[in-house]
Structure formats: C-alpha cells, structure tokens
Amino acid sequence: MNRRHFLTACLAPCVAAAQEGPPREERVESLTAGPTPRIALNHLGFLPDAAKRIVVRAAGAGAPREFLVRDIGSSRFGWGGEPPVPRELTRPLAPFACDFGPALAGEFTELKRTAMYQASIPGERSVPFFIRPDLWLRTLAKAVSYIHAQRCGAEVPGVHPVCHLDDARRRDTGEHRDVVGGWHDAGDLRKWMSATMSNGFALLELLDSGLEAPGIDPAGLADEFRWGNQYFLKMQDADGLVFHDTAGGVNGDNSDNHWTDNKIGTADDRHINPSKPGFIQALFIALEATAARVLEKRDKAYAARCLQAARRCWAASRPGGDTGDLAFWTRAALALYRATREESYARDAARLAGQLAGLAYSDFPGSQKLVRGFWRSSAADPAPYVNAVYSAYPAIALLEMAAALPRHADAARWRDTVRLYLDGYVLPMTARNAYAIVPYGLFFGSPTPEHYRPLEGELTYRYFMPVRKQFWWLGMTSHLEGHAVLLGLAARQFSEARYRELAFRQLEWVMGANPFGACLMTGEGMRNPYPHSRYVGLLIGGIMNGIAGNTRDEPVLDTEYGYDWRTTEYWSPHNAHYIWAVTVLETAARKA
Ligand SMILES: [Zn+2]
User: Are residues 555 and 426 part of one domain?
Assistant: First the structure.
C-alpha cells in the first residue's frame, strides 16, 4: 500500500466527516490563540517528584519577571504528616526563544508538597492545579469510561439506547453478516477497525501492567476488551484476513453514519467494507496475540481463540511495506512470539525490525548538521516519515523488540536506532519551543504552498500538518501522546530521567499547557472546547483531535463552538494513547 492510501485509510473517520461541510480555510486560519490566557501549565498539575514548568506568553518591557505559586487549599487537606511550608513561592521567569512567539519560562520543581495550588502573574491567575502522587492515575477511569460510552450494539445508559443490531451487509455482495458489537469510533457512529483496535491495545496494556488506579478493576478492563473484540473477531473472513471497516460509508461518503432500526434487511442497514489492507491485518494480529498472552490466566479458552485468530491472519498475510507498515508488522510478529515463544516468530520479528532500522537516517541528510535519526517514508521514498497518529510507532516497535529480546544479536542496533531518533532528532527539535512538544515532522523544502519553518540546508519542519496538501488534516493529540509512550518506554529502558520529563511535556500540552490554556479532555481541566460529537454530545474522558496549525503553522483550535472536527472531534486513538502513556509512565515509576 502506498503512503497516501495508508494515511487516508488511517485517518478515514475525519476524511469522511469533513465531507459534511469542511470549515473554510479563512475561518480556520483565524482560530489562533487570543492574547489571554498568558499562563500555560498542565491543568491537572504535577507529580511531586516531576519537573514543574510554567510558560507565559509575553515579551518586552511590560512582561513579568517572576511568577507566584501559592497553596490555595488547606496545608493539611487530609494528606497527613507533611510540613505546612512553604505556602507560597516566587520564582523568576526567563525569556525563551520559542517558535510560537515571545515566551517566558519558569520552574518550581522544588515544590513537592501535596496540595492544591495556583500560579499568578500581575493581572492573571492560572487554573487551580494539584501537586499529588495520583495526579495521572486518577484520570485513567475517566479515559476508560469514554471507551465504554462508545459501545455499539448495546444500550449505554445516559448515552444512547441499544443500537446497530442490524450491522451489517457487505458492500460488494449485499450479504448480511453479523458484526454487531465493538465501539463507535469518534464523534460519529462508525466502526473503523484501525482506530477502534487502538482501544483494545490500551485496555490490554493497562490490564497487563497490573497498575492499580482508582475506579479501575481488572475484570472490568477484560470485560470492556471483550466487548470490542467480539466485533474484531467477527470481522475475520474465511480466508483468515480481516475486513477494513463497518459503516465507514459507501464510496468514501458519510452515508452509513446514522442510527438504524435494529432490524436486519431493512433499507437503513449499514455496510461492511470488504477490502483487506495489510496494516489492518498487522494490527489485528498484534491485538489478538497480545490478548492471548494477557488473558491466558483469566480465560484459557478465550485466549486460545484469540491466538488462533492471530495465527490464521498471519498465515494469510504478507508482512512488509513502508516505514509505518513495517512498524505494525514488527509489533505483530513480536506479539505472536511473546504469546507462543516460537522461534520462527522471533526470526520474522527480527527480520522486519532490521528492515525498519535500515530506514532511519543515521547520517545528516539534506545538507545540514542539526538532526538525524528520523525515518525515511519508505525504502523508495526519501521524504521524512510523518504521521498524525502513529508517528512514534517505528521507534516504539524497536524498543519493544529490545525489551523482549535483550540478548538478540541485533538488540544493540535496535536500541541505538531509537537512541539516535531521540537524541538526534526529538531532543533538539523539542528545544525549539517553550512547551517542549515534538513537531509533526521534517520536510525537504516546501512541498505545498504554505509556510514550512526553515531548519538548515534543505530541511524544513512544521509543528502541525500542512493544510494545503489535501482538504483533511487534524490536530496533533495522538502524535504527541504517542511520543509520550515512546519517551516513557525509553526512560525505563535507558534509565534516562530527561526522557521521562519530556514525556510529561507532551501530555501536558494536551491537558492545558498550550497557548489556548485549553484542556482537551472533557471532564478535566478548564476551557475545554465543545467536542465535535454530533450524536451523543459530551463524553467524560473523551479526548479531542486537538491543536492543529494554519498555513503559517500557527496553533489553531476551535474554541468558538464552530464544530470544527479537525480540532475538536473525539477519536479512539487519543484515548488509547493517553491510557497507554499514563500506564507506561506510572508503571515505570512504581517499579523504580
Ligand atoms: Zn451503534
């Protein structure tokens, strides 16, 4: 599959939604951040032992030189035994050469005491926030509840009555096939395999970690996984391969995005897209093999069924492809090895990982000496690899290989490739903005008629997707959270605290430390945009596509109730990556 097909397929929910009436470029161009709030910090707050950062958008003679952090709760607050001082702290603000405009940055890392705080500068107070040890853990139940609220084929009390018991008929033959179950994917009612399988991965990661979090119980996680997985298993055809989606819309339109009468054979029945692209197979194999391993102790028969499904799909598949595909296939083979301990799967995984590692730029391409270690798009396409959702997966796949097969002859190469991506690319690029977020990606020159930030030599970069490449583009939530997963895994594997810190920076942007001072999870933080969620409205814990860019690569976010799906639509990968990232970061902290 070529790259265009891959991107289009992965981002299909948004593509089809856009056809309902994309906002005009001029309107999106103007959705930039206003002059206030000037203070940006994570609305959740900070772990006691983490670096604590504040960014203030200001410059010049009138800019503040310092900020105040004050305990606005009780110094006792039921936490017990902690000293009641300091109640407040004044710290300096230093100018930061930030790509997003004049900014000041400050730190108050030494403040570790559990309490509720508020930061202020003259004329502005921040959102109240916590310093507390369960800061991230206490959000997990909300993020998981979002997945539950997206159940299809059942009543979800308070969200929607029982739905889509008539899913679905094949687009090609018209034949009915039972594919009831699964999860609605986004701000709509469709069931994309690629995106909703990410929910399955997240639930299994959390279950496998053994992490204890308020409101999370292992049996509930397993039950939720099985709700989604009944649908994934039903989507496997007799030849072992799985179909692309249900209700994605016939001919790329939005025609299947509707409630139905739940009666099979009537005019409103939705459709199965019977195409079977490779990356869907890779995701399915990885998911079912992981389920087999994680659920084995809980239900042997069910685990065996999942493993059988994975093996059948693998046997019918042809692993390989471009950089993105190779990351999926490496993870698929590795998951099969971890579930079975059969050496042939380890050999396949190592071969695929070797191909993947070979696509990283170990030299400095494009007449520059600033960055290296990032990926080519494919063996045939030297353009740097970019992806709005799966950008971190190539490095994640190699790290997982190194963790699972630490004594393999190629393990050092896998580790070195990831180190070069992080130290040669991620670290220098995140240093260019005060929020420390990872840009969307690098480019050779200016592939489309809009602004690409010059780096050096032929290389340019953008923080956000180009908006004149095609009509669909979206916010960077999953890209950033995916890098939080990668950085969390790397912090553990390489014992590097700075990776862990940088992981939190990516999540903090999503949770409020951004130029809009907007938290992108419904039910946490403040200034949440109203989500593009046209059927069920607000869902607690739902995470939005997030901040995108305009033609000048300035951050844009619809805070004006414009129903701009590009920035405010909920989407499964965002919740999945959030759960995965918090799981990785918290599990590492508790094992350390
Ligand atoms: Zn439904």
Answer: yes
